[in-house]
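Repro:
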Amino acid sequence: MHSSAWLAAATLLARTVSAQNMLRFACSQLVVDRVDPLVNPGVRYTPHLHQIVGGNSFNLTMEPVVYDPAEKSTCTSCSFAQDLSNYWTAVMFFKHKNGSYIRVPQTGNGGPQGKLVNKGGLDIYYIPSGKVTAFKPGFRMLVGDAANTAESKVSKSNICHRCWTSGNENTFVGGAPCTGSDTVAIPSQPTCNMIRQTLIFPACWDGKNLDSPDHKSHVAYGSGSGANGGGPCPTTHPVKLPQIMYELMWDTKQFVADKSMWPEGNPYTYSMGLGGSAAHGDYIFGWKGDSLQKAMDKNCNLNKDCPAAGLTAQTPEKYSACNVKQQAPEPVDGWLAAMPMGSMAIKA
């Protein structure tokens, strides 16, 4: 396809996504911590660092069903007051040529659907496709593999990175998520003022299990690809779910402005010490009552109040004020002698 034809198709796809009714909202950082109640329940100082958003009952151990974030949380760092779910991802670091590391700062997202505001954190989408069944209390899942080093094992239509050449997040770059020149690898071109990371979860469920040993087998991708609601489901996983998508805007402007800091090779790495092939995201459901089901049924849209479903959108000041202390205390801000892995991290 000629570049002009591809651009026109990508623009049309982006507009189609932006015109679709879906929840799209910001979540500020609840905490940056080395805990993971999904993969490493009960463990303090897990193998790598995560940024966590959502309900403030996030804990070392969150036993399915018994530990319900919707009941135990008193605030959420996400826009909708009814969403006490927890969402988390690995953290991106910049490696200085002197061997020290610093977390890459983050910003809210812009785009065709409008500006989102958060303090660090990420943006969440719930994209329906036809009639969908909301997640049940106790539901959780994982996308990606924190140990994967092979880009060939990653579907670019589900996990991808975009070189954001614009100087700010409000000037949209490219087409729909995980299309065009998006890559599995973390881009490192000097033209990337930001790096947008996208994680798209499976939208088909076996209808029985709230979790599985690998946190993946109870869900599956449909026949569609990208951020379109997921496509028809396979017979093994016949229940259509809302498609969850995470978007993260890593702000790299300060690093591209001073190339004297750069080591040889790609200076950007995730907190596992690996690149884009190991990008991953975790999810624990925690919406109050049937609010998410109503939101899908009533075609609630973006980050706006939706009285038909009882959804109320909080101000950025309100949700950004919901924070918790680290449960694995260690320095995570400023220049670090090493990434927080193994023993407790120390300042550079």
